[in-house]
Specification:
The structure holds two protein chains of two kinds. Chain A is mainly alpha-helical. In chain A, 72% of the residues lie in helices and 3% in strands. In chain B, 38% of the residues lie in helices and 27% in strands. Classes of the chains: A mainly alpha, B alpha/beta. Chains A and B meet through helix 6 and helix 7 of A and helix 2, helix 3 and helix 6 of B.
Chain lengths: 293, 240
Amino acid sequence: MQFLGYLISGISLGSVYALIALGYTMVYGIAKMLNFAHGDVIMVGGYMVYFTFCSRGWHPLLAVLFAMAVCTLLGITIERVAYRPLRSAPSLAVLITAIGVSFLLQNSAMLLWKSDPKSFTSIISMDPISIAGGQLSIPAETIVTIVVSVIIMIVLLWFVNKTRIGHAMKAVSEDRGAAQLMGINVNGIISLTFAIGSSLAAVAGALLLSSYPTLVPTTGAMPGIKAFVAAVFGGIGSIPGAFLGGVLLGVIENLSKAYISTQLSDAIVFLVLIIVLLVKPTGLLGKKIAVKV
Amino acid sequence: MGELLRVDNLNVFYGSIHAIKNLSLYVNEGEIVTMIGANGAGKTTTMHTISGLLKSRSGSITYDSHLISKMDAYKIVTLGMAQCPEGRRVFSGLTVHENLELGAYSRKDGRAAVQQDFDMVFELLPRLKERRNQMAGTLSGGEQQMLAMGRALMSKPKMLLLDEPSMGLSPLLVKEIFRTIKRVNENGVTVLLVEQNAKMALNIADRGYVIETGNITMEGKASDLADDPKVKQAYLGGAA
């Protein structure tokens, strides 16, 4: 029964990683770059919810929507100002820029909102759910996180696979030149991808801080790195891969904390990643792209 | 028949390499014009510069009385010019039907008109209809070429740029592709065709250009070019 508890909270933590990993994987798939500033967008989202919901008492849903709007704008701006001028630059230059943006966001947050930890109040005000006749009590945050993530995942898959814009995104991801010849505005599609990824980061921030309520300017860094690992683990570029990778990562992390060692849990997570990549270099659901001539 | 496309003194560079040198050509409405030349002569570079994927350093490109040399590729499509690129470049992770839908991405004339063009493409290229729900990546080379052409036609172009449509196909398929090009042209689409298969290209074209290391070295009626001893020697594999 205890195991079930660890498992469920692992899935919940993993769902947050999955939401962040979706941002990584979509941006990688479409813009062909690793946006290492993505983790810090979570932090900005967290502060936005903190200032509106925790300090001013806005309705939690309104606060999250506000944070999503701010992060969407932030994501589009970052892409426009920092990454777009480097569209044809070597990928190393883009990578270093992304790390620079990450530092910029963290330090701006420190300047604006100070580095003292803010304690976050959960946006979910429901009672814990007890199952199996009260033997196991699961915080509402855990369940809400899982449900919200699954819904977002389904909507996103529907959007990418069934809509015109979604198909345009796939086209840009496969062949940017050919996509332009279809009349697709590649810059527009890349902006949209950053917008989606960043708004999901805001949701992830709100959910993460509801379960782990300490907010500092570096809050986004570690979850960001882990979500990146999750995206690679699941097969970077693949949306279901990001989800699977995120959930598995959360479960492995939580179970190692519970049964092996709290200190070693992160090491175990990364060890699993290394093993997976040795066996399957494209990640769990990563595709090998066959080119037909 | 008015002039639909005019390229004037075009210069294109790859870094410091001067790939296209003072190239000029024109295409009249309703024509099939072909550009023949060896590998690396600059055919594809010229095509990509016309469609906007590459930018020229100097010179001008005018299409349907719009100056398009500085325009983004995705905007040029909306003026009614479609390019079917070298190597087909179909979207392998999408189905045949989805590929064709993307061909109509830039159109704003409504579902019914697009549906009409679906019917037109399926009539022209019946093989695509059979395979409409198949992933484009699983098609054979010839089918992919047909899909690439069908996809370009879905934008309802006034002008179609075709880059090496016969590349890597069996002689039988090459014939089929060229027949299709002829039919597309008869339906009122102006064609600029780049080919290494000079014989077939000159056979269906009205006029032709010979391109060598970024320069137009000969131009004229296709039938005249086909009879020219120098062209025969260099591109038609025959003795002069």
